[in-house]
Amino acid sequence: MIKAQVFRQYDIRGVVDEELNEESYYLIGKGFGSYIREKELKSIVVGGDARHSTQKFMNAFIKGALETGCDVYDIGIVATPVLYFAIWQLGKDAGAMVTASHNPSQYNGCKLNLGLGSVYADELQKVLHIIQAGKFASGKGEVYHHATIGDEYMDYIVNSIKLDRSVKVIVDGGNGMGGPYLPEILRRLGCEVIEMYCDPDGDFPNHHPDPTVEKNMVDLSRAVVEAEYELGIGLDGDSDRIGVVDEKGKMLFGDQILNILARDYLKTNQGKKVIADVKCSKNLFDDIKNHGGIPIMYKTGHANIKMYMKEAGVDFAGEMSGHVFLADRYLGFDDAIYVSCRFIEIASKTDKPVSSYLADQPKMYNTPEMHTKCADDRKFDVVAKVCNEFKTEGYDVNDIDGARITFADGWGLIRASNTTPVLVTRYEALTQARMDEIKALVEGKINKYL
After folding, report:
1. CB 3.0 to 4.6 Å from 395: which of 87, 186, 196, 390, for a disulfide?
2. How many CB atoms lie within 10 A of CB 369?
């Protein structure tokens, strides 16, 4: 049987051979096929990333899905946003992307979709329960191959972006799946492009494919400064998360990328709502308001945000983690390749350097996202106790996702990770000393319950 722990909050993920093998994917294919057949649906688009185990796992998933009577549209080795685009472009019911995103090379996984929405949380558990109960639909589906979808995807983006001038940009593909797409798209748009690590390689030989971590962006930062280019773009393993460095080689945090995009969005969308997750800077929420938008603070998690965007009719949202969602001029899912083009479109409208885009904002001192180990069966309880203590003491607490405690001159956050056995914290204040005080206050309460 399949190991239940690989069914995480947002997707399926585990270590190859230890937690996931071909038999696992055969069962996942049967489970997911049965799940969508229960909904009287039957077409699944299947793609995968460049990890060494991906192709055999895709084949096993397809075999299982076919046995439930589902038809499969095999689009081959692609970036995750290409899979999402294919569901929309081909008008199919569901999707399965074999990927472990930015996890190390020994991992693989699977992201499941109904339409452009993620199958996650309780719905993902339903797939697991079908597998555990062996209650599979039966039938005989057909396989169709759609090898041109990547070209259709690139054409769609090129036709939707307009640059006012050529921009000099370096792309670090992280040896993930964005390398075959983004440089070509940017050249077609007229940019001068230098490629770094753009050949997909499941070993990720140059650095870990997570562009939100500073040490993974060191080579890109150095290259941008040496080449005297305007900016650098980093992509994660499956290209649904973006990282940016400015012309000085300084890395922008995810909320700063969102802030730059939000200012541009609000030029033509006054009075519209913009969603950002609880980890984002006060500067972002204030700036959205100052530029005529309505800021909404929401839960962390790409699946959570996509669902809430649809419910609330919101066209622009994002996370500290580099997931950005644009339904404005686009399709609403997290696509770092497309978002890179939107960022470069902004750069093309001005001769000012990227480092100056947010120079008018107050200087804030903040930490990156920090992790404290805490067992999965205890982490939510620890957060609840800390949250309750701050509330009891009369602090201003937003508990939509953990506890974000707001002070007159800063804030602190504690939340339980939905994907790993850790507590996530972040702190921000007007001075370094005050940030350290807030950090000490929150961590003091955390340590009481660890």
Report:
1. 390
2. 18
Answer yes or no: is 155 within a domain: no
Return the sign of the alpha-carbon dihedral for residues 345, 346, 351, 356: negative
Report the largest interatomic distance among the alpha carbons of the chain, rounded to a whole angstrom: 66
Statement to judge: residues 112 and 191 lie in one domain: no
The helix/strand/coil state of 70 is coil
Domain boundary among the residues 326, 356, 386 is at 356
Taking the CB of residue 443, how many other CB atoms lie within 10 A of it? 19
In terms of C-beta distances under 8 Å and separation of at least 24 residues, what long-range contacts does 192-199 make, across chains too? 192/166, 192/167, 192/168, 192/229, 193/169, 194/169, 194/170, 194/223, 194/227, 194/229, 195/170, 195/171, 196/170, 196/171, 196/172, 196/220, 196/223, 197/172, 197/173, 198/171, 198/172, 198/173, 199/173, 199/175
Q: Is residue 205 in a domain?
A: yes
Residues 6+ apart with CB under 8 A from 164: 348, 349
Six token digits for residue 249: 């080689």
* Residue 151 one-letter amino acid: D
407, containing H or E segment: strand 403-407
Rounded CA separation 127/119 (Å): 9
**Number of residues in the chain:** 450
pLDDT tens digit string along 52-99? Answer: 999 999 999 999 999 999 999 999 999 999 999 999 999 999 999 999
* 174/310 same-domain check: yes
Instruction: Please report, for the chain, how many H helices and E strands are present, in that order.
Output: 13, 22
Q: What is the reported pLDDT for 159? A: 98
Catalytic sites, residue numbers: 101
Domain that holds residue 46: 4-150
- pLDDT at position 104 over 90: yes
| Residues 442, 449 contacting (CB under 8 angstroms) | no
Q: Assign residue 412 the CATH number of its domain.
A: 3.30.310.50
pLDDT in tens, 373-408: 999 999 999 999 999 999 999 999 999 999 999 999
Token pair of 394 as six digits: 């009369």
Residues 50 and 135 reside in one and the same domain: yes
Cα distances (Å, whole numbers) of residue 150 to 77, 229, 345? 10, 28, 22
DSSP 334: B
With contact defined as beta carbons under 8 Å apart, do 95 and 44 qualify? yes
- CA 50, distance to chain mean position in Å, is 18
Predicted pLDDT at 321: 94
